[in-house]
């Protein structure tokens, strides 16, 4: 990439920025940039205008290295636009199209106004083409980073929502688990359970694994860690919901939970009530009581 190409690119963009902006906006509209309804035409034009202005200022510094200090404002703007679009649900194609759709308008303007020197025109087009390719990749990386952060945050929120601690009775809590129990989720489960044990002054916690698809050695270890943490807080644990298939798998793997287990949550709750000196009995109806008195 020669210095001559960079200088020509800078000169042409300074002289014909308004023309480039008009053609760029037209190109974006034709490519469906406004069809999703996520961005209005005025906002899109503002972004395009800001980008061209910052790009022009950066090129006036005599370099097309996007890592150069002079390109910092361009990088910052692209990062903001990409992050905003990732948050709003734009696709990767829609995000990179913002940059790559600028190529054709620049090429057209350069071809019309660069003069008769074909070599200089070619150098200018080559220079700006490579520059926009790098900026497009930079925008895609910024978009991907934001998407990954969103996914991680959503996974954390889902994990917290999928591990509710329910008060069944005074001193008795239930923790229904649904889905795979991995290391990260175990930490969330443990924190929620321990916090609830303290808040509710609970002495018994029922961990129901009816919704856990499989229990392997690693899952059993995670359960034991949760049970051990609860015991340190002064609460006994009962595991419920062990289905026949899971029981067979655990026996086959030689997994020992070392904790009282029940087949159903109802059985575990009955045991917890009995430990607290309570029991569930069937209430006699008035009709049944009257019939007994008449007999």
Automatic annotation (TrEMBL):
<protein>
    <submittedName>
        <fullName>STAS domain-containing protein</fullName>
    </submittedName>
</protein>
<dbReference type="InterPro" id="IPR051932">
    <property type="entry name" value="Bact_StressResp_Reg"/>
</dbReference>
<feature type="domain" description="STAS">
    <location>
        <begin position="162"/>
        <end position="276"/>
    </location>
</feature>
<dbReference type="Pfam" id="PF01740">
    <property type="entry name" value="STAS"/>
</dbReference>
<dbReference type="InterPro" id="IPR002645">
    <property type="entry name" value="STAS_dom"/>
</dbReference>
<dbReference type="Pfam" id="PF14361">
    <property type="entry name" value="RsbRD_N"/>
</dbReference>
<dbReference type="InterPro" id="IPR036513">
    <property type="entry name" value="STAS_dom_sf"/>
</dbReference>
<keyword id="KW-0597">Phosphoprotein</keyword>
<dbReference type="InterPro" id="IPR025751">
    <property type="entry name" value="RsbRD_N_dom"/>
</dbReference>
């Amino acid at each position: 990439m020669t210095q001559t190409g960079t200088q020509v690119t800078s000169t042409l963009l300074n002289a014909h920025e308004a023309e480039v902006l008009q053609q760029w906006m037209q190109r974006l509209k034709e490519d469906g940039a406004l069809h999703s309804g996520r961005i209005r035409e005025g906002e899109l034009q503002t972004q395009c205008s800001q980008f061209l202005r910052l790009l022009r200022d950066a090129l006036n510094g005599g370099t097309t290295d996007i890592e150069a200090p002079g390109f910092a404002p361009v990088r910052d703007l692209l990062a903001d636009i990409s992050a905003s679009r990732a948050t709003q649900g734009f696709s990767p194609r829609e995000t990179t199209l913002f940059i790559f759709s600028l190529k054709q308008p620049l090429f057209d303007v350069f071809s019309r106004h660069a003069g008769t020197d074909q070599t200089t025109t070619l150098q200018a087009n080559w220079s700006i083409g490579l520059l926009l390719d790098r900026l497009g990749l930079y925008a895609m990386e910024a978009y991907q980073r934001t998407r990954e952060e969103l996914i991680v945050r959503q996974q954390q929120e889902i994990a917290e929502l999928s591990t509710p601690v329910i008060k069944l009775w005074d001193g008795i809590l239930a923790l229904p688990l649904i889905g795979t129990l991995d290391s990260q989720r175990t930490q969330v489960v443990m924190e929620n359970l321990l916090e609830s044990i303290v808040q509710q002054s609970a002495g018994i916690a029922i961990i129901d694994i009816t919704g856990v698809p499989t229990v392997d050695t690693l899952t059993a270890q995670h359960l034991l860690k949760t049970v051990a943490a609860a015991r340190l807080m002064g609460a006994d644990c009962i595991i419920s919901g062990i289905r026949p298939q899971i029981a067979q798998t655990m026996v086959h793997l030689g997994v020992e939970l070392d904790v009282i287990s029940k087949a159903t949550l109802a059985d575990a709750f009955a045991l917890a009530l009995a430990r607290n000196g309570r029991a569930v009995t069937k209430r006699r109806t008035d009709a049944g009581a009257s019939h007994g008195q008449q007999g």
